[in-house]
Structures are given as C-alpha cells and as structure tokens.
User: What shape does this take?
Amino acid sequence: MHKANGSLQTSGNHKHAIHEINIKKVSDVAGAEILNVNLQNPLTKPVLKEIMEALIRHHVLIFRAQSLSKIQQETFTRNFGEIEGHVGRLPNGQRLPIVHTVTNVDSSTGRPTVAPHTDGNYYWHTDKSYHDVPSLMTMLHAINIPPEGGDTLFCNMHMAYESLPKEKQKFFSNLRAVHSWEASRRNTGNIPATEEQKRERPPVSHPIVRTHPETNRKSLYLGMHTSHIEGIAEAKGKRMLDELLDAATVTKNIYRHSWKSGDLVIWDNRCLLHRADRNFKMGKYRRILHRTVVKGTVPF
Ligand SMILES: [Fe+2]
Assistant: This one.
C-alpha cells in the first residue's frame, strides 16, 4: 500500500509528492482499491492525476461504498474525457442514455430474468472495439448485486501478449483484426445487426498487437467483436483469433471482481478484456449496475 496522506516518499534521488490517495493492490494481474476517496465530492486535480496514474499501473480501480446518482456518475466520468453513446437500443427502440443501466430485470414485469446466452456481456470483449476510436475506460457502479456471484472477470492482455512465444508475438505484430458490430452479434448468436446499425458502425480494423499510448507496453487486442484477420482467409483468420483468445484468457491472466453494492469500478479497455460471469441465480436475484464509457484514441 502507498503511504497515507501527508507522508513523503523518496526513491533514489527523486522526491515524490505527497500522496493524495491511498491505494491497496488486490491482485498481481489487475486491480487496486482506492481507499479514501468519496466520489460525491468534487475531486482536486492532484487527486484526479493520481487516480489516472493508478489506473495506468493497476488497470482496474475499485472505489468501495460509493453512492452516486446518475448525474454524479456522469460528472465524475467527464473528468477522464468525452463520454460515448451506444449503438445498441433499448427494447422500445430508443437509444441508450449516456449513463445506462446494465440489468437482468425485465422492464415490463419488474422481475429478474435469466439473461439469454446471446447477451454479449458474458463473452470476452473490450468495449466498443468495433469503433474506429474505441473506448479508453468503462465505469460500472453497482446499485444492486446478488448475494453470491455475478462477478466480472478481467483479463490482462499485456500478460497475454508477453506469454506468447517470441515468433508468435512477431507474427501477430504485423496483422490487423477486423472488428464489427455485425460480427459481434453473429459471434454471440444474437439477433443480426440491422441495416441502420451496419451503416452506423461499418467494420473497422485494429492492430492485433496494440501499444498502450501511456506506457508503450504491448498487449493483444481481441474479443467477441472480431470477425477475421486482414489478408488471411476469413475462416482461417477467425480460427487463429479464437485460438489466440483461448490462450490469452487462462486463469493466470484473470482478475475476478466480486461485486458489493456501492462499488464503483473503472477499467482500462486498452489493455484488458472483460466479461460478466453467469455464476448467480439470474432468475431470482437482481444485478443492476450503471455504466458510462469514455472515448479513447485510435489504437496503434
Ligand atoms: Fe463490456
């Protein structure tokens, strides 16, 4: 853990500034709790800077026991950049709001339901990789959490890349994967994308080996939004991506977040895949989270 407020740390000849936030690492893969920040209060620039630095270092940050309204979550999210909308629609056809609700509660009956296997949240992905400019960060605020399970899994894709044999690292470094909303729907067996959605989100390609813009560390950039590899026959390319995903998402690369109501979790989509786990009684318990997404930069 870093020193508490008011302490001065030294490292070599460099004096570090006083730490504004207390950080407790929860896993070597990813994840740290920020212990002393109430997100309802306006945050100073030094606090925000340290939060951003902690995100770069730990990839997933957990703020426990928060109680933010949607407006407060939106305000906090805007500290990190431009908030993105979503190509998806609510059952009534309306566009999802800026702070939208991830839930297993049926809006017509008010009862929890079993999420269909077509629900993309349960497949490994990085948010909005089907955009030219995909997401930097996603924020989930847990409003209602089942007594057991309903976890979110995070896969450290730096570690996944670094675990590959050198020749595979080199081979994939020269290739780009095609990502699309249409492929994403297909890969999860969901209702096909509409013509309007296909027009709004045409396929894009991104490097399979991505360089983190803040640290220059490399990672694999994959997931359920991909269809194939540019320049390789589609079926063969898809198979290669599937194999790469299987090799990446092994237990040693995964941090499992067990939610408590009030948790607010932010994560770096540039170096992680994530998915929800179906390990709870979906038809019995409510799992409700508020989500915001911050736009990133073009992957390279
Ligand atoms: Fe997601």
Q: What stands out?
A: The radius of gyration is 19 Å.
